[in-house]
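The data are quoted verbatim for reference:
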Amino acid sequence: MDAAIRLEDVRWSIGKTTILEPVNLAFAAEKMNVILGPNGAGKSTLMRIAAGRLKPTGGRVLHGDRDVFGLDARALARQRAFLSQHVEIDFAITVEEVVLMGRYPHFARAPGREDRRIVDAALEMVGMAARRRQIYPTLSGGEQQRVQLARVLAQVWSDETPPPARTIFLDEPIASLDVHHQLQILEIVRGLLARGCTIIVTLHDLNLAMRYGDRLIFLRDGRLHDVVEDPGAVSTDLVRRIFDVRATALDDDGRPMLRFYL
């Protein structure tokens, strides 16, 4: 397996409280790596460390063969982007201006023609080009999430052939969205693999993770419990151990899915 990012004995604690036990983990390049686990499992902490946004209290994070915390911040921002769970913007800024924020690592004083072109392309990709002049806070939750995804795309956009290595981190990108918008976001994200991107995403919905993911990474109580290389092979025993629920395996037109019950 080609690894985009490796965690070596990574751990994190606050005082005497351990949030993340030592983790050794590789994220597969140009694949959709899905991190799963119950609330408080350490998913967001693991993701922030892997992205270089939170320095671990032990161990190291390698992007390629280099420690992420030794990389130049601007150079790092051009090759990896991060979408947080909650992005609050409550002032009068247009959709286009929000997406243009993703281009900040690419220009010094003012955006150029190429930056504007990439913003246009990113908005087109997420289906929000027609709303480019709309004030961002007036959008629905699903529309705002698509705009934020466009911002992330604009940050690591590349038209090179072959494309350079880029990683997109998405922390609960479909939380609080209706079913239509959940599927819409995941379809867009899944399509980024064909553009040479590596995806690292946290999800709560195990069935959606099995449908869209390539590798499933299970955490519980700050510990790495299992990595499933075949999303269709998630066992009901693993579900019980991670989520404290029972599950029945079903078949949905050839695609495995689970039904949960206490």
In short: The domain at 3-261 is CATH 3.40.50.300 (Rossmann fold). The mean pLDDT is 93. The CA atoms of residues 20 and 222 lie 4 Å apart. The radius of gyration is 19 Å.
